[in-house]
Amino acid sequence: MTIWILILAVIIGLVAGVVRRGEFPTILGTQIYHPEFLVSSAICAFFVSFTDIDSDGVIAFVALVGAFVFAIMNLHLVGMIVISIGLALNLFVFILNFETPVRPNALVEAEIVTAEELERGVTISGHVELADDDSVLDFLGDTFPIRWGEKVVSIGDLIFLVGLANVTGNLMLGNQRRRYTYGQFFPDDEPAETDLEDGEAPGEIELDLDTPKSPTVYSESHNEHYESPTVYPQSSPVYPESAPTAPQPQEPWSEPPWNPSP
Fold first, then answer.
1. What is the tens place of the pLDDT at every residue in 121-171?
2. In 10 A of CB 183, how many CB atoms?
3. Residue 53 dihedral angles phi and psi, to the nearest 5°
4. Which of 87, 86, 51 shows the shortest CA–CA distance to 69?
5. Contact assessment for residue 83 and residue 170, using Cβ atoms and an 8 Å cutoff
6. Is this model's pTM higher than 0.85 or not?
7. Residue 82 contacts residue 166 (beta carbons within 8 Å)
8. Beta-bridge mates of residue 216
9. At 224, is the secondary structure helix, strand, or coil?
10. Measured between alpha carbons, how far is 74 from 179 in angstroms, rounded to an integer?
11. Which secondary structure element, helix H or strand E, spans residue 11, and what is its range?
């Protein structure tokens, strides 16, 4: 897969992002994890594409592994899962055959070689080999010719290009999933530490259960906790044992009768 095909996929993704009202500065704010795998993969792919080294099959394998690990580390980016699937297919067929099998007729259809040259015998250098009866899952290898680019790509390459365009377009929109860490799925089981006063040992903390505590009121509007003021109960009225009686009317005062002296 040449660099021009990758650039074309990126351009398609940028156009899709502009149509969806995305912004270019949003791409700069994207959080990327472990970019060293991407850099190492790009360097290895450059050597495979522009140099003729005897061990370019090993270098191509390292490039695939680096790109796949980078994709796995950044699955929070929308569309990166598609790139991971494409790279996994290319890596799988490469491991099974120790090279990437290429369909012979696809070379002719892509105008890389002629039919006469193919009949006389063609020797392919690099990390690809002509597919034959000994090839394992050769349909996952390079089977689709691209005549204008004189290149033959695989199913994994096509999936990778679709994912690359998808990721580029979503980066302009700022679409990212939440990235979970190991600690979020497996919280620490150790008990929380409690501040102890001098002279107290663990397990000897006294709780004051007699002191009434004011209830805590949660405010949804401000997302804060407020303590309601302490409410003291009103004393109930005390009634006498017997109901009070109405006062009795008093008779008018009169002087005692005078007894005449003898």
1. 777 766 788 888 888 888 888 899 888 777 889 999 999 999 999 999 999
2. 8
3. -115, 140
4. 87
5. no
6. no
7. yes
8. 227
9. strand
10. 9
11. helix 3-19
